[in-house]
Amino acid sequence: MSLELFGDRWSLLIIRDLMVRGYRTFSEFQNAGEGIATNVLSHRLRKLIEHEIIYAEPVAEDRRSMHYRLTRKGIALAPVMLELLIWAARHEETAAPCSFIDRMETNREAVLSEAYRRWEQRDPTPLIPPFPSPAKRSATNSSPTNPSLTKRSRRHPSR
Q1: CA R_g for the chain
Q2: What is the pTM (predicted TM-score) of this model?
Q3: pLDDT at residue 149 in the model
Q4: Going from the N-terminus, what domains does the chain have, and what CATH number goes with each?
């Protein structure tokens, strides 16, 4: 079931956005900059609900709108998502500064505790602050003297 559910990038991006960006609405996922088609987003949200990773609840102010939230089963993916975020930042170009990733890597338990706290308290504050995309960052200031603006160094596991 795991490969079937997480075999595409959209499911993981939705979970990431719920967990670390504080997104809750269809339009927030749609406008996240990933380029997901509305029909694909609808399908993946339904699949995640079906597998009890997320659930949808009506918005109090507008009963036609829905807020999506991680279930207990969904928030249990926090350690996996944290490791994926760190791995991606170490091996791919990302918008996050190296110093931020270093802090996440050395403070895993604190990051996870904060993710769980925000989930329990229904706090939509982003766990990870928004960073400019790598394309925007290089277009605005591609100075090689600024280490936060250069491509991240790759770390290879010891053999």
Answers
A1: 17
A2: 0.77
A3: 37
A4: 1-71 (1.10.10.10), 77-159 (no CATH)
